[in-house]
Design goal:
single chain, 20% helix, 30% strand, alpha+beta, eight-stranded antiparallel β-sheet, Pnp Oxidase, Chain A
Length: 194
């Protein structure tokens, strides 16, 4: 039932762009390290850059496993499920990279997200993923669920922070500057918002 694809275009691209939720999975190289699986959302925070490259905005949070794993080895899988309409699951297996605020590419990449104001969410980085394998599967067992809208809680919480206070918040959290397994995570203090 599942197929492999060389590109993210046509039906696949449309499906991915229509989903309000996706998941990211990463892991460290060590065999006993912590595997990380994270839900991602917020309308406008994901973009297809070209037929082999996608990106998403990485916002403030209590952990930072994805960035730490990507800095160590770059391996990442993204997954989208159809919770409405015909059943479908799409996975992009590839190599990811966190692009931080002080990277010369940051401003150009940010232009791919015109429908979201990243400021109130404490934008930490833009995660860029280059697809190596794109595949879909049936999704017959995925339940129907209804999307009601984005939560406003995250934006309200982090809109109170400026660059300095956001850096202070991150410095107090045990799994931001390094991962749960001790890998380098988010470089602190944060560079200024461009």
């Amino acid at each position: 039932m599942g197929k492999l694809y060389e590109r993210i275009d046509g039906r696949l691209r449309t499906f991915i762009e229509e989903q309000p939720l996706f998941f990211t999975a990463t892991a460290p190289l060590t065999g006993d390290g912590t595997v990380n699986l994270s839900p991602k959302g917020l309308t406008g925070s994901f973009a297809v850059i070209d037929d082999r490259t996608v990106a998403y905005l990485d916002f403030a949070g209590s952990h930072n496993e994805t960035i730490a794993h990507l800095r160590e080895n770059g391996r990442i899988t993204l997954m989208w499920c159809a919770f409405q309409g015909p059943p479908n699951i799409v996975r992009v297996h590839g190599r990811g990279e966190p692009v931080f605020r002080d990277d010369p590419r940051f401003k150009e990449l940010l232009a791919h997200f015109p429908d979201i104001d990243p400021t109130p969410h404490g934008l930490r980085a833009i995660i860029v993923v280059r697809a190596e394998v794109v595949r879909d599967s049936c999704g017959f067992a995925v339940p129907y669920m209804t999307y009601e809208g984005d939560r406003e809680t995250h934006g309200r919480r982090f809109s109170r922070e400026d660059d300095a206070s956001l850096s202070e918040y991150f410095e107090k959290k045990p799994d931001i500057a390094s991962s749960m397994d001790g890998l380098p995570g988010l470089p602190l203090p944060l560079p200024p918002t461009p």
